[in-house]
Amino acid sequence: MAKTRAGEAGNIYPEHTFSLTTTLMPMSTTMAGHGMLTRRFLARAFSSSSSTRTNMRPLTPESLNPNIRNVQYAVRGELAIKAETLRDRLRAGDKSLPFDKVISSNIGNPQQKGLDQKPITFARQVAALTEWPALAELAPGVFPPDVVARAEELIREIGSIGAYSHSQGVPFIRQNVAKFIEERDGYPSDPANIFLTAGASAYPLYTATLAQYNGAPIPYYLDESKGWSTSVESIEAALKEAVAKGVEPKALVIINPGNPTGALLDEATQERLVKLCEEHSLVLLADEVYQVNIHKRATHSFTSFKKVVSKMRSPVPLVSYHSTSKGVTGECGRRGGYFECTNISEEILALIYKMVSVGLCPPVSGQIGVDTMVRPPKQGEPSYALWKEETDTIHAALASRTHIMAERLNKLPGIELSEKAQAAARAQGKEPDAFYALQLLDRTGICVVPGSGFGQEPGTWHYRLTCLCPGVEEYVSALEAFHLEFEAEYGV
């Protein structure tokens, strides 16, 4: 029997009544009927007597692909799950907790409840008119003319956003992404090499993806003593060790600006990394979703790996990522992003296209979000003044919160975890930084991510927290008070 397609014969809806006939239709009729043969077969199977089900093996974790069980994702792991449990208790009126709200500082999700970053008006207005074009007539004068023009332009290119788009993404939006890249870098970009995506996370959950496909991660450490800079020497040592163990390196992942450290690569280091990829025949995966999250632009500027590779005329295969979830856009739930392929052969591009086609297309609403990110209002257009005010306000707020947190947390005493604290952690089967983070959550309602979820130098412990929380003075005060209490309890 032919396999069925999800969304057709594979879906069995409870309101459907299926014929239990045993007559098989000709194959041509079956195909034209979108899997009716399979539906009838499944209906008959479900009507079988209970005696045929007594020997059915139960579905257990052990019966799944073992690679699935090995997948880990730190920012959505144990602490995030516990944080949601505590949040549910507060919603239910539980007054026994020593805090009145849970602060999710474990992941960059700026528009979530409690963080409440204001969406960019231009992006939401365009989204509204592409969702329901009649709004422009029902509310005349409400939407600025450039928003109406943008929505009409997108609708002409897309049609209804309820329809599938091209599997690679709407061609018109890919053209706009290519123009954005060209203006940013000063080098050509081909829309045929750009794939719109459901955010960037479908690809760069690196260790999780490797576990799923039974790959082997080759970790390298950033240099904490030099502002968490990328150490080319550390990467070279990791490659040498991997090869000695019989592991064949395939790709180098660079997150720039860095996550979770915030470090920004200088161009000279980027050039060394490109040469390293040439030497070891590595694909370079450039995760650049934080390229707008730079607070000292007068002294620190972002340079893409696309620009560096193009300037060097390097043959290194490069895949560069960007997303609407970060920066000032912060549209995490809209799921929009793209990746651009550089120095990738037509044969490989065809295979990538085949694989993305399995998912039919990225969300069209997310693609529209990408368009508003790469084509914001220009100076002189009706929406520009408000867009500029909103984006400047978000930048300033993030910069201020970052400065306050760094200044005050760096003044705390006893940042090293004592032997007593480490012993208490291991007695509970926890890594010391995870133990610290769980205690922090239980006592303050602040959810962070332990550094052990990302990988860190042996014998060092860290936690990551975002700078998105409003009321940062109160937030940092809670962190300070907890740390002093923890030190008093475990500091000896």
UniProtKB/TrEMBL annotation:
Keywords for this protein: Aminotransferase, Pyridoxal phosphate, Transferase
Task: Name one molecular function that GO assigns to this entry.
Answer: pyridoxal phosphate binding
Quaternary structure note: Homodimer.
> Is Transferase found in the keyword set?
yes
**Species per Swiss-Prot/TrEMBL record:** Leucocoprinus leucothites
Name the Gene3D superfamilies on file: Aspartate Aminotransferase, domain 1 (3.90.1150.10), Type I PLP-dependent aspartate aminotransferase-like (Major domain) (3.40.640.10)
In terms of Pfam families, this protein maps to:
Aminotran_1_2
InterPro entries to which the protein is assigned, alphabetical: ALAT1/2-like, Aminotransferase_I/II_large, PyrdxlP-dep_Trfase, PyrdxlP-dep_Trfase_major, PyrdxlP-dep_Trfase_small
Q: Name one GO biological process term.
A: L-alanine catabolic process
Q: Give the protein name, as stated in the record.
A: Aminotransferase class I/classII large domain-containing protein
Q: Which cofactor does it need?
A: pyridoxal 5'-phosphate
What family is reported? Belongs to the class-I pyridoxal-phosphate-dependent aminotransferase family. Alanine aminotransferase subfamily.
Q: Does the keyword Transferase apply?
A: yes
Enumerate the spans annotated as Aminotransferase class I/classII large domain: 203-467
